[in-house]
Amino acid sequence: MTFLRACALSDLQEDVPKRVDLNGVPVSVVRTDEGVFAINDICSHANVSLSEGEVEDCMIECWLHGSSFDLRTGKPSGLPATKPVAVYPVKIEGDDVLVSVNQES
């Protein structure tokens, strides 16, 4: 599994998504009281950026239609989204947030 530097941990505000591009993959990196999570930044219901939405209780809400996705699993909490979005492994090394977006295990 290959990890890429997404951002500095110190650049992340709690519950404020940060959009990054890792090898052409749009990723929303979010720091919560439960940890740091990386989720695909494109809503599975509409082609909009999840990082523009609100974060609460380890869920990120799509600003366009209100679907929320669990940052831990990518599963939607309700309509209109029915499909999950990808979540990615995260490692913290010093002040670096590293994310693996490759599909290999």
From TrEMBL:
Pfam families for this protein: Rieske
The protein's enzyme class: oxidoreductase
Single annotated GO MF: metal ion binding
Entry EC number(s): 1.14.12.19
Domain Rieske intervals: 4-99
SUPFAM superfamilies named among the record's database cross-references: ISP domain
Keyword Amino-acid biosynthesis listed: no
UniProt keyword Metal-binding, yes or no: yes
Record's keyword terms, sorted: 2Fe-2S, Dioxygenase, Iron, Iron-sulfur, Metal-binding, Oxidoreductase
UniProt-listed Gene3D superfamilies: Rieske [2Fe-2S] iron-sulphur domain (2.102.10.10)
CDD domains xref list: Rieske_RO_ferredoxin (cd03528)
PANTHER family reported in the protein's UniProt record: 3-PHENYLPROPIONATE_CINNAMIC ACID DIOXYGENASE FERREDOXIN SUBUNIT, FERREDOXIN-RELATED
Protein name: Bifunctional 3-phenylpropionate/cinnamic acid dioxygenase ferredoxin subunit
Organism: Streptomyces kaniharaensis
